[in-house]
Amino acid sequence: MNYRNTLLFNTFGLPAYWSACRSARAEMDITEEKVHYGKHRRQYAVVVRGANSGPDKYAFYFHGGAWTFGRPETFIPAAIPWLKLGFTVVLPSYRRPPRVGLDRIVADCRAAITQLVPADPNEVKALHIGGISAGAHLAALMALHPEWWKQGGWQSGPEKALLCAGPLCLSDLQPGKVFGRYPHLDPYARLREGSPSSLQWQLLHGTADATVAFQHSEKFHEQLLEKNAAANLLCIPDGTHLDSGRWMFGGVGAEEVAQFLGGCAGAGEKKIGARK
C-alpha cells in the first residue's frame, strides 16, 4: 500500500500547507475588500486587488473544504498569478451544510457573481474562474452555465477555467444517497449535455489523491476532448490532494498555471513532478 495514497497522509500535511499559505499571504502587497451579497454571515466575498489591477479583468476563485469547511481568506495566495496579470480577484464564501444543501450553496455562488458585477460590464475584457477541491466543482459548474453570468449582469461567462483536484463527477461520490440528489449540479453530466463553447480548461490533479480520486479530472478531461474543447490535464504522479494547490505559493504546477492564465490552453495530458 502506498502511504501517500491515504487520507491520513493528506491530513498530516495540512499544518505545513497552511503555514506556506500564511507565509505567501504575508508577502503579498494587496488591498482586500469584504463585500456582502446576503444577510448571512457567510454570504460575502473577499475582493483582492494588486497595484496593477484594473477594471477590465476579473477572476473568481472558489475555496476548498468539502463544501463545509474553509474560508476565502485562507486561499488569498491563489490570487497571485492573476494579480500579476492585472486582474481583480474575487473569492466568494457561502453558507454551509448541514443547514443548507448544495442547491443553496450554488445559489449563493450565483448571488455573489451578481453582486460583484462591475459598474460597467462592457469594460471587462477578460473573465476567468477557478477553484480547488469542492471549489473546483463550483467553478466547473459556474463555467458551464454562461447564462447564469448573463442573468447576473455580465456580458458573458468565463473564458478560462482552472480546476484543481475537483469532484467533477458527483455520481461517482459516496454516499450515493447524498450526492444522488443533485444530478442537475453535476459538472460531468452538464458537460455531456452540451458543448463548453469557447471555454479553455486547465485541470490539475495528483494520482495519489485520497480525498478526491484522480479519475474525476481524468474522466472530465476525456469528455472535454470529446467536445473538442481546448483542455489540458496536468497529472502529478504520486501527488496528493494538497499537491494540487502548491502552485499558489510557487510549488508544483506554478509555471504551468501561470502560462495557462496568461496564454492559451493546450490539449492533452502532461505529467509534472510532485513535491515529496
Taken in chain order, the helices and strands follow as: HHEEEHEHEHHEHHEHEHE
| Alpha carbon gap, first and last residue | 17 Å
**Sheet with the most strands: spatial strand order:** 1-2-4-3-5-6-7-8-9
The CATH H-level superfamily is: Alpha/Beta hydrolase fold, catalytic domain
Query: What structural class should be given to the helix and strand makeup?
Result: alpha/beta
Largest sheet: 9 strands, mixed
Instruction: Average the pLDDT over all residues and give the rounded result.
Output: 92
Outline the structure in words.
This protein is of the alpha/beta class and 276 residues long. It has a single domain (3-271), classed as 3-Layer(aba) Sandwich (Rossmann fold), CATH 3.40.50.1820. The chain has ten helices and nine strands. The protein has a nine-stranded mixed β-sheet with strand order 1-2-4-3-5-6-7-8-9, sandwiched between helices. The longest helix is centred in the middle third of the chain and has 14 residues, at 102-115. The radius of gyration is 17 Å and the shape is globular. The mean pLDDT is 92.
